[in-house]
Design brief:
- The chain is of the alpha/beta class and 386 residues long.
- The chain is 49% helix and 12% strand.
- The chain has helices spanning 3-16, 37-56, 78-89, 110-120, 135-152, 171-185, 208-216, 236-249, 259-263, 277-288, 292-307, 316-320, 343-372, 376-385; strands at 67-72, 93-98, 123-128, 161-166, 192-196, 223-227, 252-256, 268-271, 328-329.
- The strands form two sheets. A five-stranded parallel β-sheet has the order 7-6-5-8-9.
- Helix 10 (277-288) runs antiparallel to helix 11 (292-307).
- The model has no long low-confidence stretch (mean pLDDT 93).
Length: 386
């Protein structure tokens, strides 16, 4: 272990003494708004601890021989990899399940699926983000199925359920983004972060990434601006939670319909496309009716609506208006190059957005270990000494 690595691990271990790690025990993680300030502080501190240990190759196998299932109803590269990487670093065996291979489409309920997986899994991640109103209730029902099964069988295991993206929130992404901002800026209170819609030639991108950001960051004192053209509003309840978070956390939350103005003096910018609300809601109705022609029509109208705002792009001119012209560019990836962001801008930050993405590994490690390991501080200290 290098002297610098030893110093970082020692500092992180000392910081854990001030955190309420017990508040994480047996806890699932479905939306960041469900987590208390003490729990969020514990998660971020743990994640930073695991990253410091990982840099020295000293992560202890706290969950040796356990199974970490992940159920994906949508495509994924970074989150799937982060789940597998986090589980493996803790000594778990990751098991990735394609949602289409389950019996859900044949009538099996989410509670039944949760109970079945809870019999075998020691943790379960779920991505279900394609349709408004479906993913979040599904994940919560999965959680109920697991919880009810464990209670009915007097099984005392902790089987945390982790939301790996739903229609409402993408909490592991939001935590990763928070960790990246903390590394880059340290104290976040008073920092200005702009979350902006950006043009994309694709359709039906979930609302959950911007919604996760605006509900989490103001709780840490960040001044958040949400910018989008008319028609790309987020869920009203999410906007209310963002304002509540700003009030409780000392940050602020502002809406804008001008991308250029929203970039002015920002410390970090997060230009990201998402679907138009009205058409996303129409899409739910068409899906429930089995109306394939209607779904195709909605897609074409959504693409046409997007095309009216091709000028909503993160470019050099807008980046020059940020604080000292040096704002941090952020994205959950993959970014639509030439549409959401100019290639020149993206290339400048290519390594940094990859490092941002990698924070998700440590966020998930914190969620799993915090929920499952008794005496976590002592176990981590023992691991650091070996």
């Amino acid at each position: 272990m290098t002297h610098q690595g030893t110093h970082q691990v020692t500092d992180r271990l000392a910081a854990l003494e001030d955190l309420d790690l017990e508040s994480l025990h047996h806890q699932s993680f479905i939306e960041t708004r469900d987590a208390s300030p003490a729990q969020l502080a514990a998660l971020t501190g743990l994640a930073e601890m695991f990253e410091a240990l990982d840099a020295t190759g000293r992560v202890p196998h706290l969950l040796e021989g356990q199974l970490a299932y992940a159920l994906f109803f949508d495509m994924s590269t970074r989150t799937r990899s982060a789940w597998a990487g986090a589980a493996a670093r803790l000594g778990m065996a990751p098991v990735i399940v394609d949602g289409g291979s389950t019996q859900v489409e044949h009538g099996e309920t989410a509670e039944e699926t949760g109970a079945m997986l809870g019999m075998n899994a020691h943790a379960l991640g779920v991505r279900h983000d394609k349709f408004l109103g479906e993913g979040n209730p599904f994940i919560r029902s999965i959680h109920k199925g697991i919880t009810d099964y464990l209670a009915a069988t007097n099984d005392t295991r902790a089987v945390p359920v982790v939301n790996l993206q739903c229609d409402v929130d993408h909490p592991t992404q939001a935590l990763a983004d928070l960790l990246w901002l903390r590394e880059r800026f340290g104290e976040l209170r008073g920092k200005r972060v702009t979350v902006s819609w950006a043009y994309s030639p694709s359709y039906a991108k979930p609302l959950s990434v911007p919604q996760g950001l605006i509900t989490l960051l103001p709780r840490f004192g960040v001044d958040v601006t949400l910018a989008h053209p008319p028609g790309y509003e987020l869920m009203p309840e999410t906007l209310a939670h963002a304002q509540e978070g700003a009030t409780s956390g000392g940050g602020s939350f502002t809406l804008s319909d001008d991308m250029t103005a929203a970039f002015a003096n920002a410390d970090a910018v997060y230009p990201k496309s998402w679907g138009p609300m009205a058409l996303m809601q129409e899409r739910v109705v068409a899906r429930q009716a089995g109306d394939q022609a209607g779904l195709r029509d909605i897609e074409q109208r959504a693409l046409a609506q997007n095309a009216q705002h091709r000028d909503w792009i993160c470019n050099a001119e807008r980046m020059a208006k940020t604080r000292n012209g040096e704002a941090l560019y952020m994205h959950c990836l993959p970014a639509d190059l030439g549409d959401e962001v100019e290639r020149e801008v993206y290339d400048r930050y290519r390594t940094e957005v990859a490092r941002q993405a990698n924070k998700k590994v440590y966020a998930i490690m914190a969620l799993l270990a915090g929920a499952k390991v008794n005496g976590l501080s002592e176990r981590l200290l023992d691991g650091a000494r070996t």
